[in-house]
Amino acid sequence: MSAADLMRSGHVDSFARDNLPPRESWPRLDLAAAGLSYPERLNVVTEFVDRHVAEGRGRHDAVIGPSETWSYQALAETVNRIANVLTRDLGTVPGNRVLLRAANTPMMVATYFAVLKAGGVVVATMPMLRAGEIAYPIRKAKIALALCDASLVDELMAAQALAPELSTIMTWGDGALEALMGKAGYEVFEPADTAQDDVCLIAFTSGTTGEPKGTMHFQRDLLAICDAYGARVLKAAPDDRFIGSPPLAFTFGLGGIVLFPLRIGAACVLPAKVAPPDLAEAIERYRATVCFTAPTAYRAMLGKLGERDLSSLRICVSAGEALPKATFDAWQEATGMSLMDGIGATEMLHIFIGAPHETIRPGSTGLPVPGYEAKIVDEDGKEVPDGTPGRLAVRGPTGCRYLADPRQAKYILDGWNVTGDTYLRDSDGYFWYQARSDDMIISAGYNIAGPEVEACLLTHEAVAECGVVGAPCPERGQIVKAYVLLREGFSGDAALAKALQDHVKASIAPYKYPRAIAFVTTLPKTSTGKLQRFALRELARQEASAS
User: Fold this and answer.
1) Domain stops at, among 181, 197, 219
2) Domain that holds residue 504
3) Are 21 and 172 in contact (CB under 8 A)?
C-alpha cells in the first residue's frame, strides 16, 4: 500500500487493499460519467440504516422475518450492538475480513451491516456449501473470524479443520452472540471512518475452472448499484416491500432484497422458505410488491396463481439466467405484469443491462443501465456490427477487481469488463442473449461450474473420466448433465447413477449435483487429449430435442 493509500484508507488491516489487482488492470470506473458522486469519507451503513432514523423514519418497517419485524430503529440498534461485540469483545479492526454463514434472516442482515459499520470486509457464504467449499475463501481471504447461525455451524467447524486461518467462530441462535450483544452501552456505535474506495465486500463466485474468484467491491459500489439500477430502472418507492429467493451471499440477492429497499427506506421481507410454492405463499402473506427471482421460479409460480393471491406485486425482476420469451408471455398473460429482465455479474455487483417497464422489449435483456456502457466485441476485443453475435463487454461505476488472481487479465480488456456471455445488439441498441461463452451452467438461477462437478465425480472409485455440461431443461433453464466413462469392473446402471449423485451432494453444495448421468464408452477430445465440452453441449442439446 502506498503512502497516499494509507492516508486515504480507513483500514488498519491493509490486506484487502494490498491484494487488489494492479491499477492498470482495472476496468474504467467512472462515477462522474455515471452522474454519481459520493464523499471521500464514507461508511455505507449511515446511508442504508442510520440516515432513516436521523430523518424521522425510525418506526418504519425495515426487515420482516417469519417471527419478527424490525423497524429501522430496531435494525440500527441491533447493528450497533453486534458492531460493539466485533470491536470490543472480538478485537475486530477496520479491514479485517469476517465470514458470514446464514440463511436469509434478519440476523444475517444485521451482522452484514455490523461488519460494514465496524469497517470490516464481509465474506458471505451460502448455507448449502460444504466444508471444503467454505474453506477455500477462508484461506484465500485470510479470514480469522466467522459469525454463523448456530444451526449451520457443523460444516463451518469442519471447514475450520481445513483452514486453520479461522481462529474464532461466534454463533447466534444459541445465545452466544446474543449474550454479548446485551451489554450496557452497546446500543450506540460510531461508524468506522472508512474511505469510499475501501473494500467492504469480497464476493466469491465459481469460475469455469471451478476455483472460486473473490470479487472485491468498495463502500461506494454498494450505493452505486442502488443509485444506478435501483433509482433509474427499478424505480421502487418507500412504501414497497421487497421479496425474493436468491441467497444474500449472491450479490443478486444482496442488492435486490436488501440494498435496494434500504436505500430508499422501504422494507425487505425474508421468509423462512423461498422455493417457488413458498415464495408465492409469502408474497400473499406479506403483501410483497417487488420480487427478485429467476425465470424458473416465475414459471413454477404460474401453477400457483389459482391458489395464491399475488395481486400485491407491481414489479417483478428476473435475472440469474436467461429469461425465455415464453415465460415472459405466460407471466404477462396470467398476471398482466411484464417481467423486468436483467443481466448482472458478481464482478459488476449487480444488474448492468435491463429496461424500465416503459421500454421493455419481450425477449430482449434490455438496454444498458443509465451510467453503464455496453458493446459487443470479437475475440480480439474489436467492436462488431449490430446484429452480429459476440462477447458482451461493459463498463460503468462498478467493475471487476479480483482478489490476488491472474484471471483479472482475462476478464478485463482495454478497460472493459468482458463477461462470459454471447450477445448481439440490434440497431435500436437493445441487447439479446445468445448463449454462455464458457463452461458455466446456469440452472434455476444458480451458477455451476462444470469442471468443479467433474473434479468431484473423479474422486469416486467408479469414474475413470467424465465431462459435465448444461443440458436444456424447460423447467430449470438448464440442468447439470454428466457424461461418465467408468473404470473396468463397474456397471453403468441406475443404482450407480444414484450413488454418483449422492457422492456429489455429499462433497459439494447439493444444488450442483448432476440431475442426468449418461454412461459412455468414449468422450470427445482434441488431438492433444483436451475434453471438448462444446461437443458434449451439442450432444446434450440434441438429446433434449429428441426426448
Assistant:
1) 219
2) 443-546
3) no
